Amino acid sequence: MLISHHLLLCATPTKAVCCDESLGKASWLKLKKLIKDLDLENPRRAEGIVLRSKVDCLRICADGPILLIWPDGIWYGGVTPERIEMIIREHILRRTPVEEWILKRTPLF
Q1: I need a surface site. Which of 36, 46, 73, 97 has the fewest CB within 10 A?
Q2: Computed over its alpha carbons, how large is the radius of gyration of the chain?
Q3: What DSSP string runs through 57-68?
Q4: CATH number, domain with residue 57
Q5: For residues 75 and 78, what is the distance between their CA atoms, to the nearest angstrom?
Q6: Are 85 and 67 in contact (CB under 8 A)?
């Protein structure tokens, strides 16, 4: 099975120092819904599937929720349900990162 991206969302940290837990939860629910609604988990998707994982901590203790997109190595900060939708549509579907919300880049390749 081909994988196009893996999205890691620091959404519900046990030590809520990076973000408000309710905002993290709402962002996670939006991410799950978008991936399902846009059929991004379909194994027949030519570009490959999009995986998603809710993580406890990405070790950036500010500007959360944080969304890390692999293999691009792009870290988005201040993620909200509205921003997640734009990130998915622009970064994942159109392959154009949303520059204004990028915290840092750590490309895999």
Answers
A1: 46
A2: 13
A3: --S--SS-SEEE
A4: 3.40.30.10
A5: 10
A6: no
Domain limits at 15?
3-105
pLDDT at 13: 63
Q: Give the span between the Cα atoms of 101 and 78, in whole angstroms.
A: 7
- How far is it, in rounded angstroms, from Cα 93 to Cα 87? 9
- Overall number of domains in the chain: 1
Burial of 10 (0-12, 13-18, 19+ CB in 10 A): buried
12 vs 16, higher pLDDT? 12
Find out whether 59 and 66 touch, Cβ atoms under 8 Å.
no
CA 59/CA 65 separation, integer angstroms: 11
